[in-house]
Prior knowledge:
The protein is α/β, with parallel strands linked by helices. The protein has a domain at 83-220 and 251-335: Spore Coat Polysaccharide Biosynthesis Protein SpsA, Chain A. The chain is 39% helix and 17% strand. The chain contains 11 helices and 11 strands. The chain has helices at residues 4-41, 44-59, 90-94, 109-117, 143-153, 168-182, 200-207, 261-268, 278-288, 311-314, 328-335; strands at residues 83-85, 98-103, 124-125, 128-138, 156-162, 188-192, 196-198, 216-221, 249-258, 302-303, 319-321. The strands form 2 sheets. Strands 1, 2, 3, 4, 5, 6, 8 and 9 form an 8-stranded mixed beta sheet that branches. Strands 7-11-10 form a 3-stranded mixed beta sheet, with no helix packed on it. A hairpin with a 2-residue loop joins β3 (124-125) and β4. α1 packs across α9 (278-288) and α6 (168-182) packs across α8 (261-268). The longest helix is centred in the first third of the chain and has 38 residues, at 4-41. The two termini are 44 Å apart. Residues 1-61 have low confidence and may be disordered. Bound molecules: 2-acetamido-2-deoxy-beta-D-glucopyranose (3 copies). One 2-acetamido-2-deoxy-beta-D-glucopyranose binds at residues 76, 161-162, 164, 166-167, 170. It comes from Periophthalmus magnuspinnatus. Keywords: Glycoprotein, Glycosyltransferase, Golgi apparatus, Lipid metabolism, Membrane, Signal-anchor, Transferase, Transmembrane, Transmembrane helix. Its main location: Golgi. It is found in: Golgi apparatus membrane.
Amino acid sequence: MEDGGKAAGRKPCCVTNRRTIICLIFLCSFVILYGFNMSETSNTWTGLNNKRTTTNMTTSTPPSSEYKSPGPYLVEYPHKYNFIINQPTKCEELKPFLVLVVPVAPQNIEDRKIIRDTWGAREVLSNKNVTLFFLLGLGEINENELLEESKHHKDIIQSDFVDCYKNLTIKTMVMLEWLDTYCHQASYAMKIDSDMFLNVPKLIEMLEHAPKTNYLSGLVEWAASVHRHTTSKWFVPFEIFSRTTFPPYALGLGYVLSLNLPKKLLEASQEVKALYIEDVYLGMCMHHLGLSPTDPLIQGAFHVFPLYYNRCQYSKIIATTLDTHTNRRQLWADFTKPGPYC
Ligand SMILES: *[C@@H]1O[C@H](CO)[C@@H](O)[C@H](O)[C@H]1NC(C)=O
Ligand SMILES: *[C@@H]1O[C@H](CO)[C@@H](O)[C@H](O)[C@H]1NC(C)=O
Ligand SMILES: *[C@@H]1O[C@H](CO)[C@@H](O)[C@H](O)[C@H]1NC(C)=O
């Protein structure tokens, strides 16, 4: 169990490293002998020069001219992705306690509108700033329209990878890069899917009692089985991950993390191969760091199956998936009307 995350990540790295080291030892011996011979026939400086040139030429890896796909179960990460649309100063200005990041497809304008009008609308809660951002990849949308939307709402972040289900892990890692670079002033970040209901005051109430570092919480899967059936949406072959269960991870629909974690998780991602299942992959990186997600301090706070709307019950939870037919604006109007919840 305790080796779950590393099985997929570390092993291939170690093999490469060992090979490189053996290679280097051979090379060094050769170079030293060669350089020694040279110093006998000419002066020492020439020998040293030759030594340098030889090392340089033989160890340099061949130029990466040909694109190599990571295959169907891994994604192109780490990789240098760029932010095409960015909000680089907002966190610095607002020093938010909580940052909400909603991964959404570029063309999904409707969900962004609804979220801005409902749970994303509140910017200050119990004297704490809350900031909302939407994270997009590349997709079917008029870039000018998107720039207009960004100029108006100042909540769009867009990176230059192809936005699709298979690439969600890239999105999550790019989110961590963004948080680490532009938002380390914040205390916590919540990644939440665009079709969810989020009770921000309840989330803040929980975070006020949560650990300040190495904290990741949500709906935790403590020992999820690896899907070995090729028809499964989450199929992972044995060669990619050999253990029967994944390390603990928080379900991707919504999880919250302390802002000291993005840097650590990014470091771990250098050594753990990027599996296409984004929430599992974060669990693997946490495991690699010797860390674990934790159950929410409020029991039953996260719901993966749509919880039927009930004003009293919704006031006690943090997040739930919503039935696709739910009128979210209507729900919000009812939820936020004056008067006691229960
Ligand atoms: C060889 O080393 C020099 C100096 O360190 C560097 O500028 C050059 O790019 C290297 N060449 C190769 C092929 O790696
Ligand atoms: C919240 O943001 C405002 C700017 O809108 C800033 O002046 C204030 O200091 C922030 N509050 C906290 C607690 O950082
Ligand atoms: C994921 O994004 C990368 C980078 O943009 C791209 O090369 C790759 O084709 C994408 N994957 C899919 C399945 O579209």
